[in-house]
Each structure stands twice: as C-alpha cells, then as structure tokens.
Task: structure prediction
Amino acid sequence: MKLSELGEFGLIERIQARFRAPDGVTGIGDDCAVLHQSTGRDTLVSSDMLIEGTHFLRKEIPPYDLGWKSAAVNLSDVAAMGGKPTGTFLSLALPADLDTDWIDAFMHGYADISERFGTPLLGGDTTASPDRICINVTVLGECPYARARLRSNAQKGDVICVTGSLGDSAAGLKAILEGVERDVEVQRLIDRHYRPVPRVPEGEELRLNLGVHAMMDLSDGLGSDLQHILDASGMNAEIDVSAIPLSLALKHCCQRFGWDPLALAVSGGEDYELLFTCTPQAEMLLSVPHFVIGKVTSSRSVQCHPEPVEGSSHSGLDPESRITWRGTASPLSPGFDHFKKG
Amino acid sequence: MKLSELGEFGLIERIQARFRAPDGVTGIGDDCAVLHQSTGRDTLVSSDMLIEGTHFLRKEIPPYDLGWKSAAVNLSDVAAMGGKPTGTFLSLALPADLDTDWIDAFMHGYADISERFGTPLLGGDTTASPDRICINVTVLGECPYARARLRSNAQKGDVICVTGSLGDSAAGLKAILEGVERDVEVQRLIDRHYRPVPRVPEGEELRLNLGVHAMMDLSDGLGSDLQHILDASGMNAEIDVSAIPLSLALKHCCQRFGWDPLALAVSGGEDYELLFTCTPQAEMLLSVPHFVIGKVTSSRSVQCHPEPVEGSSHSGLDPESRITWRGTASPLSPGFDHFKKG
Result:
C-alpha cells in the first residue's frame, strides 16, 4: 500500500499503535505533549516541519516571513494548550547555493517573533539539503500541573468559540497562487497567511478560566480541526455557519474575485486562531475577544457509526463527521490530508 | 555570498550572533542545550535533521536501520553530556508514493532503539514531502543540576580518551558507496555505519566521575570534534596517532582494499563514540571501556593566532588547528563541513 492511500491520519494511528504512552505524559496526538514534572509545572513540547514545495514556495514567500511563520506555527501549538512558550530549537536544511542574504532575512523574522513572545532560540541543527529548504522547529513551553487544555474534554452543552476571523489565510494563499494584484485588502490576507500571530496571551487567559474545557489551534481548517475535538471527546456539534466570523477584507475580496468565503473559512487552514469549547456561563466572563459559532450537542458512542444527523449538509466524504452545519445549503468539504490529493 | 562560501560553522556563528543566550541556559552550541529547572535536575534538549541525499541514500539504507539511526544520533547527543535520555519527538516528511512497508520497517527500527534505551516517542509531526524523505528528531534528557559535561571544560594536563574504535563507520560508508562485496568483516563496518549504538550508560558513568572534565560525541570525526573541545576550552592538544583504537575489521578491510585506516579514523565521522578529557588520576578509576589517545598540553589565548606548533603535521587547511598529531608523517585533513565540498 502507498502512503497516499493510507493518508496522514492513518499513518499517525499506525505509528501510535507501535508506541505505548508512558506514565506521566498526556497529550500525545494533541497540539503538544504534556510532561508532568515534579515541580508542579508541566512541560509542553511540540515539533513541526515545513518543507519547500509542500508548505511554501521559495520564490513566493519572503524569507523574513518564512522565519516568522516557522516559529509562529509552533508557538501556536503551545497557545493551543493554554501554555506559555519558553524557547525553541530550529533545524535548518539549506541548499549550498542559497544566498546568505536569504538566511539573514529568515533569521531576522525568526528573531523578531522570538523576541515578541520571549522565546529564545536554544539550539538546533544546520545541515545541507540537496535542493529543497527543510525547516523543523521544536518549541518548549510550560503550564501549571494538569491545567493544559486537551482536545478531549469538550462537554455536552458547551458553546464552541473561535478567537478571530477565519478564512483570511486561505484566501491569502489563493491570492498568491492566482497572482492577484496586491492592493491593501489583498495584502492583508497575504499577511495573515505569511505572518500569522499565535494567540499566546489569549490561550493563557483562556486557560485561567476553568469553564474552558477543550482547546486547539486552527491549522488544518475548522471542519477538520473541530472534528478532532469531537472525535477525542466523543461528542457531536452544531455549527451556525452565519456566525463564523469573516473579515471585511475577506468579504470584499470574495465579492471581487468570485471566491466562496465560507468554503475558505471552513476548509481553508492556517488561520492559527484558537478553537475552544466552554460552558455558556464561562463564555460570558471571557475578556479574550471571541465569537460563539455553535454548540456541543450530544455525546455519542465512538464505536458505532450512527445514521447521518438530520439537517446535516454532510458531503458524504467523511462518514464519521458529526458536525451539523446550520444555515448553509452547500456541502462543505471536510479537512485536509497532507498525503491525499485534494 | 553563497552559503557554500560561508560554511556550516560560519552559519552557526551568524545565527548565534543574533540571539542572546538567556539566563538559566548553558550548552548552546554544545551537543545539547542545558535548561536549569527548579527541581535540581537539568533538562537536556537536542535536535538533529537527516535529509535524503545528504545523510542517507534511500535505495541503500534499509528502512529499519534508518529508523534506528535517526534516534541513535540524538540519544548520542544526550550521552555526550552525561545525561539520561527520557523521550523523543519525531518529525517525518514523506513522499506520498512511499510504500507503507517502508514506513513500518522504519518505525520498527525506531521503536527497537527507543525500547532499548527506555525513551518513548512522545510526539512529532507527519507531513508530505514532494520527493526526498526528511527526518527530524528532538530528544529530551535529564541530568543532575550543573553536572552535564560541556565541551568547554578541558583542563591542562588532562588525558584525552575515546570509548571505542574509530573509523569503522566511515569505512562502512566507503564500502557501501564503492559497492564492495559484503562478507562478515565488511558487514560489521556497514552495521556500525547504519546502526550506531549511542554510549548512553557509558556517558552516565563518566558523568559520575568528577575528574571527567569535557565530553562530546564523535559525529564529524576526531580531527574536527576534538578541535571543538579545544576551541571551547582555549587549549592545545597532542594526539598519539598510534594509540587511536582501530578495530580488526577495519584493519583487515583497509589492507584488502588499500584504504588508509588513520584517515578514516581521524577524518571519518559518525562513530558516535564519546570523546572526553579527564585527569590522569580519574582515568585510572574508570570502569567504562576507553582508550587514552593523547593529552591536553597547554592553554592558549583564543584571540591570537600563534605560529604552527613544532612537530605538527598540520595540513594548512585549518589555520587555527591546535592539535599536534604525533606518530604520523602524512597530513591529516581536518573536519567535515556540510556546505563545503570535501
């Protein structure tokens, strides 16, 4: 069997089946692994790889932005647990004919975001690549004991929230790939694609509220990422599509270029906003900017495969989806798989 | 300027110049970063990247061995500090047409060495690569407070030791590249190249002896790696070339194929033996198998560039080398640079 048939999540299951989770560690398969320490603080660790040709195009992305984004997507994983990032490790494989100006600009972007979030570069590896640039960042973070927010804790009756507008990053990528002329609005979308801002203080504040139950960051897209929370928690959900926050820049550009804003907001990834569930009471007390987009409706047995939920505009592509999309007629495609052709 | 002109160590200096080492962290630029914790235990972290075409050839290395080696080279970084590795994070970028049998064998090798050294897989990332396999492993380890052995602590009068025979791995690589027929001896060398055994218990035992001053693992080759210890410690050294341990398999194969065993032992890398300096008194008490190969001769000012040391068979390629090689007439090439053509 080829990897393209197995798919990314099949591969992850296959790897997990071979390794037993050790004592004192939770969060394997979550945004970060959570390692319990004897200090009363948990250590959070996450590692993400970016490959030229899969995650970015060298001739498109400015090296400053790539440096920024390489750190940002990892800091976002710590934010997604409600943790405080403390430092990063950077592995870089670079072709020998790369210009040192490119490297300087890359490190400049990496240094700027590191300074903004107080996360020093603590080590890493530099090596030669025959052709493509390959980047891996490992981030360390910390969090009070057992307070990290996992994906698996969504509760029946919770409201579902996001910390900001969705779809901008996917629209920015679309603008880059289609070569759209870059006026102020288009550039705003491209900036959100190239220079995402990880929701670190927002994640820490959400963690302080014990009514916030499950949390993750939106990297693959709302449709796919919410599914992870529901699968891990054994829940179903209803999303009010009309409540999904869309930026003015996104709405305008979609009108101008004939793009579908909802498809970008639901299926496009890399917004790096936080997706969380909390009690309605807790939601009223949150000072973090956020938008309520739906609710956790019911628990379910994850073993059985019930009939499609009434009112669901389910596309049929994902037989286990338990999200009911209210307020739209068109089917919304599910998530993103690195190994399958979309 | 191209990266190939700057070189790997020039690149590392350029990166380090941009980032200030934070309080409570030592070992930046060493085998591991050492993070002081309030528990009285230090956390050790290292991250290494392996790229197809630079570090391995997919059609040559069995996937089991590649999985083994990916973890081994990282566990070796913790061993080099005298630490105990506690877990790993694996990032894998794989082409979509890769066979799942390949992945299973890779994970089998990774799982076997992880079990042998008690280091569970705690997380990571899987993603698609357009063509080349790219692997990054981050290892976590621990060590009592301020007991990790840095490269910078070699003392005048120390003896210089290695934990095992050198050159086998480089000879194994040579045998693979030259397509030598694989009898028992040749296979032994190839095994040392493909399945290095990190010296984890050896490193922990050496750390218990306070007379052991500086330590690192031999990944780039004795000539290059010893230079790192001397540069970091501000010392010079004399190596007795006749004392460098060579395996019988290496000696026989060198005779049969006309290879130079000393060149392989000094300039060939990836032996993953430990290189350490200690007092002569401490050396007599060590129960870890080891070989004394030289001594730390004198301190030096690292600012000035003194004249070549008398008796040195220095090749002239590295004007700052402070190693005197005794007992050989032929010049020995210095270390390995990923970005320069050898």
Summary: Chain B is about 35% helix and 25% strand.
